[in-house]
Design brief:
protease; CAAX prenyl protease 2 isoform X2; single chain; hydrolase; mainly alpha; about 300 residues
C-alpha cells in the first residue's frame, strides 16, 4: 500500500419510460468500444503512476530522503493530472454522469464528517487484535502514550520525516485518488459496481503486488462506493500503512496468546457485524456512483442501499 512507498456491460442512457439501446442512447461509440476505452484509461493511469516512481535513476535506497523527495514530485504531478484522464474518458465515451467530476470522484461536503470517522472506526475495529498486541508490547502506559501522540513536537517531527510523509500522507492520498476515485467511475458503467469493487484492485495489483494489496483495494473501493467520499479510504489507507500486516504468527507465540487471539477474533467478528451498518449510504447522503448507474437504468441494491 505504501508503494510510493456479472452484471454485464453497462453504459448510460437518457432516462425515459423505455430504455433506449445503449449505443444509440450514448450517441457515441458502441458499448464494446466504450468498455475498451475504460480499461485502457485505467491501465494508462496505473502505468503512469508506477512510471512516475521509477523515472528517477539512483543508486540510493528507496528510503533515502533524496529518493523520496524525487518520487514525491513525480507522483504528485501524475496524481494531479489524473482527473484529466476521467474527463477525457467522459468525452470519448459520451457518458454524462449528471454531476460534476469532482463530486463523482468523492470530493464533496455532504456527509463528510461521518465519511471521515465511521470507515476509520470500522477499520480500527478490524485491527482490534493488532491494537491490543501493540499496547501489550508498548513499554509505556496509555496515559504516556497519549501524551506522546498529542504532543505538538511529535507531530512536528513526523512532518519533517520523509518516510512518515510517504507512508501516512502521500501514498494514501495519491493511490486512493488514482486507483479508486479515478478508476471506479470509469469502470462502474462498464462492469457494474459489484464487479468494479474486485476489478479495480487488479490494476493496483498489476502495478505493485497481489494478495494483501488486492484485498485491501477491494475494501477501500467498497468504502468509496458506499460513502461516496474519498476521505474515508484515504484515512483507512493511512491507518493500515501505520499498522502494517497483522502479526498473526507473533500473536500465536505471544506470552498472553489466549486473550490476544480472543481480541483478533472479536475484532473480525465485530467488523463483519458492523460492516453494513457503518457504511449505510443513508449516513452519507446521495452516492454519486449509484446515481451514475441509476441514470443507466441499472439496479445495484446491495451496494447502494
Amino acid at each position: 500500500m505504501a508503494a510510493l512507498g456479472g452484471d454485464g456491460l453497462r453504459l448510460l442512457s437518457v432516462s425515459r419510460p423505455e430504455r433506449q439501446p445503449e449505443s444509440a442512447a450514448l450517441g457515441g461509440p458502441g458499448p464494446g468500444l466504450c468498455c475498451w476505452v475504460s480499461v485502457f484509461s485505467c491501465l494508462s493511469l496505473a502505468c503512469s503512476y508506477v512510471g512516475s516512481l521509477y523515472v528517477w535513476k539512483s543508486e540510493l535506497p528507496r528510503d533515502h530522503p533524496a529518493v523520496i523527495k524525487r518520487r514525491f514530485t513525480s507522483v504528485l504531478v501524475v496524481s494531479s493530472l489524473s482527473p484529466l484522464c476521467v474527463l477525457l474518458w467522459r468525452e470519448l465515451t459520451g457518458i454524462q454522469p449528471g454531476t460534476s467530476l469532482l463530486t463523482l470522484m468523492g470530493f464533496r461536503l455532504e456527509g463528510i464528517f461521518p465519511a471521515a470517522l465511521l470507515p476509520l472506526l470500522l477499520t480500527m475495529i478490524l485491527f482490534l487484535g493488532p491494537l491490543i498486541q501493540l499496547s501489550m508490547d508498548c513499554p509505556c502506559d496509555l496515559a504516556d502514550g497519549l501524551k506522546v501522540v498529542l504532543a505538538p513536537r511529535s507531530w512536528a517531527r513526523c512532518l519533517t520525516d520523509m518516510r512518515w510523509l510517504r507512508n501516512q500522507v502521500i501514498a494514501p492520498l495519491t493511490e486512493e485518488l488514482v486507483f479508486r476515485a479515478c478508476m471506479l467511475p470509469m469502470l462502474a458503467p462498464c462492469t457494474g459496481l459489484g464487479p468494479a469493487v474486485f476489478t479495480c484492485p487488479l490494476f493496483f495489483g498489476v502495478a505493485f503486488q497481489f494478495s494483501y494489496t488486492a484485498v485491501f483495494g477491494a475494501y477501500t473501493a467498497f468504502l468509496f462506493i458506499r460513502t461516496g467520499h474519498l476521505i474515508g479510504p484515504v484515512l483507512c489507507h493511512s491507518f493500515c500503512n501505520y499498522m502494517g500486516f497483522p502479526a498473526v504468527c507473533a500473536a500465536l507465540e505471544h506470552p498472553q496468546r489466549r486473550p490476544l487471539l480472543a481480541g483478533y477474533a472479536l475484532g473480525v467478528g465485530l467488523f463483519l457485524l458492523l460492516l453494513q451498518p457503518l457504511t449505510d449510504p443513508k449516513l452519507y447522503g446521495s452516492l454519486p456512483l449509484c446515481v451514475l448507474l441509476e441514470r443507466a437504468g441499472d439496479s445495484e441494491a446491495l451496494l447502494c442501499s
